[in-house]
Amino acid sequence: MSKPDNSNADDFVQRYGGIYEHSPWVAREAAADAADCDSLECIAELMADCVDNASTERRLTLIRAHPDLAGRAQIAGELTPDSIEEQARAGLTQCTAEEYKRFQDLNDRYLQKFGFPFVMAVRDSSRAEILAAFELRLANDPRVEFETALTEIHKIARLRLQAMQAKETEK
Ligand code: GUN
To answer: Does the C-beta of 130 come closer than 6 Å to ligand 1?
Structure first.
């Protein structure tokens, strides 16, 4: 990362507040220890630690902050810029009517079983890979799936940090 100054907490939250979907509290908490962090790896670990040390309720709220993949919010154009890019790169904005129906059915079944949405770091996956993972994960135990969702959320955060760094290097 091109050595941003991480010693000002407000600037840190401004910069990294969107790395965890709709959850700027992660950046706010990480900011307290970020002054000496000058690498992507350091920032990623600091933010991941804040999530891992949060209460179960807060982690559940974080998972629930994610929109469905190829879901109603995507169709209605109500996603965050990061989520739009991730879903578009995975081809989820170009589903056929039949694929949208399949995603809707899977999203509904998943939410019904686990009480939170299916989260997967889809940026570099194809629609077929996502659908296959969706079917597999639907069979998981809820405790396993809770941890899997958080692991995927940490992957999404890293990919967002990498994308941020790549965009800044382009400038
Ligand atoms: N994976 C990458 N972005 C997203 C998102 O916005 N929602 C879900 N559910 N998974 C994602």
So the answer is: no
The dotted CATH code for 68-170 is 1.10.3330.10
Residue 68 alpha carbon, nearest atom of ligand 1: 9
- Nearest-10 crossing angle of helices 40-52, 142-170: 150
124-135 per-position pLDDT tens digit: 899 999 999 999
C-beta of residue 32 within 8 angstroms of C-beta of residue 19:
no
Query: Which atom of ligand 1 lies nearest, measured to the CA of 117?
Result: 9
Q: Does pTM surpass 0.85?
A: yes
Closest by CA to 44, choosing from 124, 163, 159, 147, is 159
* Residues 19-31: tens digit of each pLDDT: 999 999 999 999 9
Ligand 1 mean position to 102 CA, how many Å? 17
Distance 36 CA to ligand 1 centre (A): 30
**pLDDT, average across residues 29-34:** 94
The response to whether residue 106 sits with its C-beta less than 6 Å from ligand 1 reads no
Q: How far apart are CA 62 and CA 169, in angstroms?
A: 30
